[in-house]
């Protein structure tokens, strides 16, 4: 089954310096039908004006992933990490017992566009941590976040894997699902291009929840397709 979440149906927030679209309930946007899927709790599509950003604030017991679509994030946290996160890179902050951080648009002239993703951890009260990496797209589906951090991926404290999907126009890739994987959830967030998933068409900003599919065909209909694909536990 494929359940489509159109871009325009997401929750909306406009703070002037920040325009955000919420796939799931977040802050003042509440929809009991969209509270998250499995351990995936937040996908916020954030656009930040030049020089603006989020002042120092705290998080606890959450795995927070940022993926920059365009622009650069300036990050600073209570563990002494002072980093910049450019377009195409992934950041994973394990809030654990508690961490304070700020994140700003590093440019005073160019806007920042990024996805902020929250995943509930499987263990509470762990030590906080910070990871950041740029990944080569060695195949159409490239794992970037895994539970064990294998093959140089970022390690998340949950039974969840995040892939980046990149396809050229007309290109197709198939994800086969074994019987043991049948009850797991997949969630696809399309960033750019037009993507067909088993006959369902997504345009930029759309999401899709996939369940009980033995085989999934991803086909780029127009433009270069970039998407994030989450493989999530049935039980989280």
Automatic annotation (TrEMBL):
PANTHER family in the record: QUERCETIN 2,3-DIOXYGENASE
Protein's name according to its UniProt entry: Pirin family protein
Pfam families: Pirin, Pirin_C_2
Family classification: Belongs to the pirin family.
Family annotation (CDD domains): cupin_Yhhw_N
Annotated Pirin N-terminal domain residues: 8-119
Top-level taxon of the source organism: Bacteria
Chain segments annotated as transmembrane: none
Domain Quercetin 2,3-dioxygenase C-terminal cupin: 144-232
Protein's organism: Shewanella scandinavica
């Amino acid at each position: 089954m494929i359940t489509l979440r159109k871009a325009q149906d997401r929750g909306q927030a406009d703070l002037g310096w920040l325009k955000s679209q919420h796939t799931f309930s977040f802050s003042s946007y509440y929809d009991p039908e969209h509270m998250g899927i499995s351990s995936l709790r937040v996908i916020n599509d954030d656009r930040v004006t030049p020089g603006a950003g989020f002042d120092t604030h705290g998080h606890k017991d959450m795995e927070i992933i940022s993926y920059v679509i365009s622009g650069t994030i300036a990050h600073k946290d209570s563990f002494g990490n002072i980093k910049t996160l450019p377009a195409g890179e992934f950041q994973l902050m394990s809030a654990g017992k508690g961490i304070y951080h700020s994140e700003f648009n590093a440019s005073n002239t160019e806007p920042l566009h990024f996805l902020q993703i929250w995943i509930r951890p499987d263990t509470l009260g762990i030590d906080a941590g910070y990871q950041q990496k740029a990944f080569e797209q060695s195949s159409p589906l490239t794992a970037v976040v895994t539970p064990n951090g294998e093959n140089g991926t970022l390690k998340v404290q949950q039974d969840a894997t995040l892939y980046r999907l990149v396809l050229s126009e007309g290109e197709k890739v198939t994800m086969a699902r074994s019987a043991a994987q049948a009850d797991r959830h997949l969630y696809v967030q399309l960033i750019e291009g037009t993507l067909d998933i088993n006959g369902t068409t997504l345009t930029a900003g759309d999401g899709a929840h996939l369940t009980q599919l033995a085989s999934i065909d991803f086909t780029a209909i127009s433009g270069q397709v970039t998407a994030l694909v989450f493989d999530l536990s049935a039980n989280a």
